[in-house]
User: What shape does this take?
Amino acid sequence: MTRPSALPSPTSAVIELGPLTIHAYALCILAGIGAAIWVADRRLRDRGGEPGTALDVAMWAVPFGIVGGRLYHVISTPQPYFGEGGDPVAALKIWEGGLGIWGAIALGALGAWLGLRSTGIRFLDFADAAAPGILVAQAIGRWGNWFNNEIYGEETDLPWGLEIHRWDTAAGGAAMDASGDPVVLGTFHPTFLYESLFLLGLAILLLVIDRRARLAPGQVLGLYVAGYPMGRIIIETMRTDEANLILGLRVNIWTSILVFALGVAIYVVSARRGSRPAASRVLPSEKKSLTR
Assistant: This one.
């Protein structure tokens, strides 16, 4: 039995509308994408960009990002798909969870670069505008893990311990006991929630820094790329889901370390290329630089 004070988890991750099955995980991803586009468009317009540019670029970035995210997940965790008893077809079922943010950002950036070719906007300007919104998208997307009863930590009796059910992936919901009640495994650290809150806090921090500091093009991107892994490393040490290890550490921890180093490099190199006035004080001459 779970504690009465535990945070609840859904017993179903799907919505049945006649013949149509809607997966909550997919809805969270779509909501995050919408938020990211809105934030990026608003910040681009503040910098002199044309309304709707972010949506145009997203038409390239989002499909690339989804493919990249799934590829990273499948490559870093191949056993459920290509190991003994694995199901290769399940590698296509992204609604069941499994999008690696590292792959999503990498291929999403490639898609954004391709989409920007016809706009005249420099990639670093767009990336700086988009970075806080991407963090918000990640924060919203993490709630898909809540619906799927996945990505949690050790058992805990803390007031915010999360109730987790034994999950029936095929049915998209909690397994039921003989009485028809959902089977509760216990209460665990809600690592999905910890990461979601961290992401929102980092997004706010980037917005404040960008408004108050004189940052060069690419430095907001650098802060995002270096900042996210700092929280992700902590979260990874708390998670209890199965993961492949390298030298005793989860693959995502090693990836986080490499990405952190990349973010620092982006920030330093961008700083050496010159600064610009804070985003809240865009000059008319700078608006031209976005569209040349």
The longest strand covers residues 184-188.
